[in-house]
Amino acid sequence: MGGVDKGLVELNGQPMVAHVLARLAPQVGDVLVNANQNAERYRALGYPVVPDAVGGFAGPLAGLHAGMTAARRAFVVTVPCDSPFVPADLVARLAGGLERQGAQLAVAKTFDQAHPVFALVRRDVLPNLASFLEGGGRKIDAWYAALATVEINFDDEADAFRNINTADELAAAAGTLGVARGQSPAGA
After folding, report:
1. Which residue segments constitute the domains of the chain, with CATH numbers given?
2. What separation in angstroms does the CA of 170 have from each of 15, 88, 118, 129, 176?
């Protein structure tokens, strides 16, 4: 989307991240927002903002590291700011699978596609993540491959994991959100 902060891109009159937060917040006890720019705008949404502590733009793992470091609960869930259709049962399903399998990390999966940034992780693996990052690791799936991981099937909600990367996808999402809220699709 041209290098803009996607979380703050407007979708149906609200920043995209506001849609994500509206779906995620009821599922968790606390919310932390990881942001390295526009911290005041993110803070205005009513949640603490934590920046990456790992330099050199380490990607989603740096955000997870920041969240796990700041969190005070035993589990941390991560979702991206550009996926406004987060399932309403994401955390419950991930937690159920994690507990059933005795896993350290549960990741959402649709059909044959894992969605590693939609994950629930035990906070006690933070030292493992810190070591991986210090060693130059950046690929989220490479990190979690070394953990006791369970993939949780969300084939019934596959569209919930789409992210918005283009103006066309943003326009399509605006229509879909309108339909989901009982409104007519744009142009109907």
Report:
1. 6-179 (3.90.550.10)
2. 12, 21, 20, 33, 10
